[in-house]
Amino acid sequence: MVHIPSRPIYDVAAIRDIEARHAGIEPPLMARAGAAAVLQALTFVAPDGPPPLIVCGPGNNGGDGFVVARLLRERGIAPVVVFAGDEAKLPTDAHEALARYRSAGGDISHEIPQRRFALAVDALFGIGLQRPVEGANAELIQRINGLGCPILALDIPSGLCADTGRVLGCAVRADATATFIALKPGLLTLDGPDHCGAISVCDLELAPERVLPPSGRTVTPELFRSRLKPRPKNSHKGMMGGAGILGGAPGMAGAALLAGRAALKLGAGRVYVGMLDGTALAVDPRQPELMLRRPSEIYSPGFATALAVGPGLGQSAEALDLLRQAIAVDLPLVLDADALNLLAAHPVLADRVRKRAAPALLTPHPLEAARLLGLEAGAVQADRLRAAIALSGKLNAVTLLKGCGSIIASPSGRWYINSSGNAGMASAGMGDVLAGIAAALLAQGWEAEAALLCAVHLHGVAADRLVEAGAGPAGLTAGETIDAARRVFNSWIDA
Questions:
Q1: In this predicted model, what pLDDT tens digit does every residue of 212-244 receive, in sequence order?
Q2: pTM score of the predicted model
Q3: pLDDT cut 70: percent of the chain above it
Q4: How many whole angstroms separate alpha carbon 314 and alpha carbon 176?
Q5: pLDDT score at 1
Q6: Above 80 in pLDDT, residue 280?
């Protein structure tokens, strides 16, 4: 496998701190940003083709655009530069960048002309934007989006919140984004991936990690590589642990079976499925290796070494009692789906999760997270990172907030954003498979944070491989991702 390093992620406050520590550096940060961005722009334009358009805003992001415009002119490419702002109010560095562009023979316009462009460079608003884009600026963004040419955003697509990935009224839909210094959370989660296109990080030769520890990191196998070891030849199933799955209420047996099959195929030595619907199945005909048991048996000594509670659990009195017992057992625990809804409805149980000695993993989608935090789902989505961190702290559990750019937060304060996966995963049963994968890794002795990082990244990579092979995204099923995840996991171990 290709070894992909985990990359640092910084919020806006941290980026501003890094910038402040490099005030007065030579060449200045704006010159470095423009020089890095022009290399990206040159991949889209040619001297004998249509000109590039550069839309510059009223702040330092606009200054970056003026530097790009000047450097293009120096290479024999005359861009069309549109300035949406007041020259008298430009920051000092941006004002100087505009003056140097003019000295190189360039001029500016205040509206986009009706013509064809090879590229549109978005230098309208940068990472400091906090309020919704309205009026003439909103119209300008819509015009950029409708040009029909590739769009390169500088630092971040204008209109996108750099800390949250939320669209502030409207936002540029870029084909590529040249982001400066380091990644920001908003590029990777919520609406960010739909607006950023291909992201390239231009560190401006600052080596930010030497200056300031990162706020978070991207998820790659580098984070759990020490766990990806071949099994010893002298192995037996008892060494691989036992995963217990609790769920499968009437009408939802499939959820528990999906989790069980995933746990089995990701290496658990034994998998026990405690089905609330005792009449559903005596054996899984597709996966007879699964041991279907009465739920109460799963807690018996010598059975499971890790538990997953929630796939198809329902919210009955029996389900509540099973959850209560699972929390009391001194085993690593995955809490998913209705187990999370029951915690939200019974704060006493949530407090018991917080006080457990054994680790717990939470895998909520935004609505489940909102219930646990006493918020509306919209509030969770408006700041996914803050919600994940809050939930991890509230329940003292490693927490995965599912969605585009899934966020993993640890009680230690560490957080991560996962970028594997695709829209085909928006189908029933995907969460059950993920819970089973995580349970399998916990059963085999993985630490809680490493288990959740691996489970979410592996599941996404498996779905990506299936889409590459033509099995999606439309119609991709949860069950298909299990065998694909097994193939990817073994390829990582053999690498």
A1: 999 899 999 999 999 999 999 999 998 899 999
A2: 0.96
A3: 99
A4: 44
A5: 52
A6: no
List, in order of start, the domains of the chain with CATH numbers.
Answer: 8-215 (3.40.50.10260), 221-494 (3.40.1190.20)
